[in-house]
Amino acid sequence: MGCILKQGGLYTRARIGAILLAAGQGSRMGSVPKSLLELQGVPLINRQLIALSGAGVDEVVVVTGYHHELVEPAVEQFPVKVVRNPNPEDGQASSVRLGIEALGSNFDAIIMALSDQPLINANDIRKLIAAFKKRPSGEILMPVVNEQRGNPIVLSGTVMGQIIEAGRNMVCRKFMDQHPELVTPYETDNEHFVVDVDSLEDLNTFAAKTGWVLKLPKLVDEGRPTTERAEPANLALHKPVL
Length: 242
Hints:
- The protein has a single domain, classed as Spore Coat Polysaccharide Biosynthesis Protein SpsA, Chain A (Alpha-Beta Complex), CATH 3.90.550.10.
- It is 29% helix and 26% strand.
- It has 7 helices and 14 strands.
- Strands 3, 6, 7, 8, 9, 10, 11 and 12 form an 8-stranded mixed β-sheet that branches.
- A hairpin with a 2-residue loop joins strand 1 and strand 2.
- The two termini are 26 Å apart.
């Protein structure tokens, strides 16, 4: 169910969409899809989908690419649209563009999310949406923690329409760089927005800092993952904003 938005003295239902990126190769994780890392037995991509649903998001597009044969079965029980990037080697920008085209701009707010952030929960997403609705200006909300850019970001449907109309070479990060006046920082001390793990060495540090253990999926021949304890150790506290 979507969130309630006040307009002209009346409360109307805001339409919220999301793009969830899960196309990466996970090369620094030993060519293992980071979206399938497990926290308390639940793949990170599933935790993201549960968080988005719990925050009232109406429609989600999941973009897969590398490891699609493993990632797509993990989300098949969710009512989401899956788009496969046929050229994931072209980088994250190509997946962002596919997600934008698949979702469209018919939303009051669009969340651009990464599938491998371990700590993002529904309350974090709700706070982002609330901050977006209350923003004093701009069309894009970006979480900032101790001067570090975070994820997810939230965009207006208007900006999404502009990005779509600008052609296939235009994506969120490029648009933000070209239009900084449209970007509003969401200053917060919530490190959920800047915590992720990029390599095998990051896993021990994540456990030491948070008390939570991430487990690697064991990739099996039939194309579905089971879990085994990771060989863990330098928490990547931020990733470049999309």
